[in-house]
Design brief:
This protein is of the alpha/beta class. It has 2 domains: about 240 residues, Aldehyde Dehydrogenase, Chain A, domain 1; about 140 residues, Aldehyde Dehydrogenase, Chain A, domain 2 (3-Layer(aba) Sandwich). The protein is built from 13 helices and 16 strands. It has a 7-stranded parallel sheet with strand order 10-9-11-8-7-12-13, sandwiched between helices. A 4-stranded parallel sheet has the order 5-4-3-6, with helices on both faces. The protein has a 3-stranded antiparallel sheet with strand order 1-2-16, with no helix packed on it. Helix 1 crosses helix 8, helix 5 runs parallel beside helix 6 and helix 10 packs across helix 11. It is globular and about 70 Å long.
């Protein structure tokens, strides 16, 4: 009886959250740019004033995660400090500076019969964000959704729920001071899987889009079970191809950064593909640099002989997103073999080519069909903030509507406005 009562209470709570979000969405749709920008000023001030509360909540989350034997990469994604809170505030400042996308005329034309047709940007409505351990997601997503006129419902994993709830509390203070509904940004106060299930079902039509932020199992479950559209990617098996025309100094710097800057993010490189003509003179330096950074190196049979601390790579390694200081390395005959390998094992997230040859660069960027394709740059730049989008609500690897970092412009749809003067159709 208790379980049924709790389930019933949770169901009613979620439905109320959905109704409030729908109502808030309608108000946001007509909010002025000035009103939305005032929110950001209050939000930054609230986070700064609530720093001690947010960090105390985060410390409780970290202690619980350690007790649950979470690994270092997980703890790193979960942890907040003064610097990271300042980063949250900087992101909100950047989002505030962007032009309001709502109501923007994307195209306009006149028909021979005198009708004028305009395509105008509109909010998507209510965004449901299901995420795991990164509490900064609450602030990034809250700012992006608010600026683009969307209401947001957050469902945090249990490991970061205290931290995310503390951040949302600060954002709701700012909403109230901005004369906007607190329900513009809500967080589900439960770690129950039932809450996620109800969100995936749409909360009786309240949720328009679901965005999953987390590991493969979470995203796979969301994409399998959701009854509303989903922006998401299953894995970030990112590749760097080091071409025979690569600048070796650039290649060395980029590869080490792409793996070791932060190993637990989806933009970290997992496989290096090295042209056979480069291997003999370059790979020893590369392996030394990676091993000196305490990175485990798994090499194909053609490259394992270059270092006695390398270990053999198996077929399964090419299909693995490590999210850890581990990398797989493979020698390829040419760019065609590299492209073929990426086509077979890639997940459509981010790939990079290191080459000074314009023809090779063009062939790579024209042929690779991932959401993000880079030239002579670290895959760790696969981030909405680095793209100048003011952070991201997620990275989408599908091919419809939004693709790559999902920023404020990707959180809008459009409608057609047709203007006539008593026109009738023959």
């Amino acid at each position: 009886m208790v379980c049924k009562k709790m389930s019933s209470e949770l169901s009613e709570l979620l439905l109320q959250i959905g109704l409030k979000a729908k109502s808030a969405s309608a108000i946001l749709n007509t909010a002025t740019s000035e009103q939305k920008n005032i929110f950001f000023e209050f939000a930054i001030k609230a986070i700064q004033e609530d720093t001690d509360l947010i960090l105390a909540a985060n410390q409780l989350d970290i202690e619980a995660a350690k007790e649950n034997n979470k690994d270092e990469a997980f703890i790193d994604r979960l942890a907040l400090d003064i610097k990271r809170l300042q980063g949250i505030c900087d992101t909100l400042t950047e989002i505030r500076s962007f032009d309001d996308p709502v109501g923007k005329v994307l195209a306009s034309w006149d028909r021979p019969n005198g009708l004028n047709i305009s395509r105008v940007a509109t909010p998507l409505g209510v965004i449901g964000l299901i995420f795991e351990s990164r509490p900064n997601v609450a602030a990034d997503a809250g700012g992006l959704c608010l600026k683009s006129g969307n209401a947001l419902i957050l469902r945090s994993g249990k490991d970061g729920l205290r931290s995310a709830s503390a951040i949302v509390s600060s954002l709701q203070k700012a909403l109230k001071l901005s004369d906007l509904p607190e329900a513009c940004i809500q967080i589900v106060p439960s770690e129950s899987r039932e809450a996620a299930t109800m969100m995936l079902e749409g909360l009786n039509g309240a949720i328009d889009v679901i965005v999953p932020r987390g590991g493969k199992s979470l995203v796979a479950e969301v994409e399998k079970s959701a009854k509303v559209p989903v922006f998401g990617h299953l894995e970030g098996i990112c590749h760097i191809y080091i071409d025979e025309f690569a600048d070796e100094e650039k290649a060395l710097s980029v590869c080490v950064n792409a793996k070791m800057r932060r190993t637990g993010i989806c933009g970290a490189v997992e496989t290096l593909l090295i042209h056979k003509n480069v291997s003999s003179r370059f790979i020893s330096k590369l392996l030394d640099s990676l091993l000196n950074e305490n990175c485990e190196v798994r090499c194909c049979e053609k490259t394992i002989g270059f270092h006695d601390k390398a270990i053999p790579a198996f077929e399964s390694d090419w299909a693995t997103e490590y999210l850890a200081p581990i990398i797989s390395i493979k020698s390829v005959l040419n760019i065609d073999e590299a492209i073929e390998h990426i086509g077979k094992f890639g997940t459509g997230h981010t790939e990079s080519i290191i080459s000074e040859n314009k023809n090779m660069q063009s062939k790579f960027t024209n042929t690779i069909d991932s959401a993000i394709v880079m030239i002579n740059a670290s895959t760790q730049f696969a981030d909405g903030g680095e793209f100048g989008l003011g952070g991201e609500i997620g990275i989408a690897t599908g091919k419809f509507h939004a693709r790559g970092p999902v920023g404020i412009n990707q959180l809008t749809s459009f409608k057609y406005i047709v203007s006539g003067d008593g026109h009738i159709r023959e």
